[in-house]
Design brief:
Layout (H helix, E strand, L loop, with lengths): L7 H4 L20 E5 L5 E9 L5 E6 L4 E6 L2 E7 L4 E6 L7 E4 L4 E6 L17 E2 L3 H9 L3 H9 L4 E2 L14 E6 L5 E7 L2 E6 L11 H7 L14 E3 L2 E3 L17 H14 L6 H12 L10 E4 L2 E4 L1 E9 L4 E6 L6 E4 L11 E4 L15
Parallel strand pairs: 9-10
Antiparallel strand pairs: 1-2, 2-18, 3-6, 3-21, 4-5, 6-7, 7-8, 8-11, 11-12, 12-13, 14-15, 16-17, 18-19, 19-20
Length: 369
């Protein structure tokens, strides 16, 4: 049960630690949130944006599956999956970039341009090193809680090597990571100055650059935001009242930059009225994340004469109680679900399904009465 990999030679990039070269357009618009339902279940979700099209699939990885991390010097850390998991992969690289395991622990990779700086791989640390796509698979296949992940990283059990990521453009991809567990705990992992820096995440929110602590500080600029409408005020003897609903949110940033998305995601998840159960909570996750859906054209840049537009290729959600993984795509807004508990978690092979589909338009003309 060994993990099939792209050839190691094709992924080598010796001596490179700068992470985002100028050969490709920048993509950095993913947004993540978490909410709790009335029955105590935590559900989480995220958007996945790119300026280029990528093939994505959802896979189920069984217990006992063997992995070998890739580094600039060749094979790195080896491990065997302790827990089964389900999630999204890019192209044919069998490493979950976003997913959930049988213990309800979820993980996600988010772009982190201009800040991500991985460690230099040496013969000394090669045995604990892996790529930036391997680390999310390592986390989701090895740990049951945020506390366990924190302990392993603080114990220097892993390092990220600046190796090419299979399925992505030929440059080292800059990522930082978020982890959620069934208790609602959340941890942000950021590769800074060659080491992994950890942040407790009380908001459950995730975005892109700059660093997570900066985003938390920036939230102080928006503490006056309020879900309640502002009552009428009297100025010079004349009463002024709101023009419509939502006056308490006046000043909420509405653009698609990472700082603005982080603020909106934090506010929307914090003010969400809890749903009754996980299934309704998942629907709430998708409704909130609809506010971060980027249509083609609104966020774009020109590169070598070609216009690249960031857009929301994929939106996913994770149910930590029922172990269900949900997704919808840009071309098909139908919410699809994969139930991890219904698989043979001790199977010997990975199973996979492409996320590619086209949403039909249903003609209701003949149904009218």
């Amino acid at each position: 049960m060994k993990k099939s990999r792209f050839s190691v030679k094709s992924m080598m990039m010796s001596g490179i630690c700068s992470l985002l070269l100028m050969s490709q357009p920048e993509v950095n618009a993913c947004t993540g949130i978490q909410v709790q339902t009335k029955d105590g279940t935590y559900v989480s979700g995220r958007t996945l944006e790119f300026g280029l099209f990528f093939e994505t699939s959802v896979i189920v990885v069984p217990r006992g599956y063997e992995f070998t991390g890739q580094t600039t010097l060749g094979d790195g850390k080896k491990w065997k999956a302790k827990y089964a998991s389900v999630g999204t992969i890019i192209a044919d690289n069998e490493a979950i970039l976003d997913g959930i395991n049988e213990k309800g622990l979820s993980v996600g990779s988010f772009y982190f341009p201009d800040y991500a700086n991985y460690s230099v791989t040496t013969p000394k640390n090669q045995s604990i090193s892996m790529s930036s796509s391997d680390i999310t698979q390592w986390i989701v296949s090895q740990f049951a809680s945020v506390a366990e992940v924190r302990a392993a990283i603080e114990n220097n059990e892993v390092a990220i090597s600046p190796v090419l990521t299979p399925g992505f453009p030929p440059e080292v991809q800059p990522f930082h990571f978020i982890v959620y567990d069934r208790s609602g705990m959340s941890l942000v992992i950021e590769p800074l100055d060659g080491r992994l820096v950890l942040y407790d995440n009380p908001t459950g929110t995730m975005s892109n650059s700059p660093t997570f602590d900066w985003h938390l500080t920036n939230l102080r600029n928006y503490i006056a935001l309020n879900p309640n409408n502002i009552p009428p005020v009297s100025i010079f003897g004349k009463s002024f009242k709101q023009l419509g609903q939502g006056s308490g949110m006046l000043g909420l940033p509405g653009d698609f930059t990472p700082p603005s998305r982080f603020v909106r995601a934090s506010v929307f998840s914090a003010t969400a009225i809890p749903e009754d159960n996980a299934e309704k909570g998942i629907q709430q996750i998708f409704h909130i994340l609809n506010n971060f859906d980027i249509p083609v054209g609104v966020a774009r840049e020109e590169h070598e004469g070609v216009i690249h537009s960031d857009y929301t290729m994929l939106t996913t959600a994770r149910d930590s109680k029922n172990l269900r993984y949900y997704y919808k795509t840009y071309n098909d807004q139908t919410i699809r679900m994969v139930d991890l508990s219904k698989f043979d978690l001790n199977a010997r092979t990975i199973v996979k399904i492409s996320t590619k589909s086209e949403q039909p338009i249903v003609d209701m003309t003949g149904k009218l009465k």
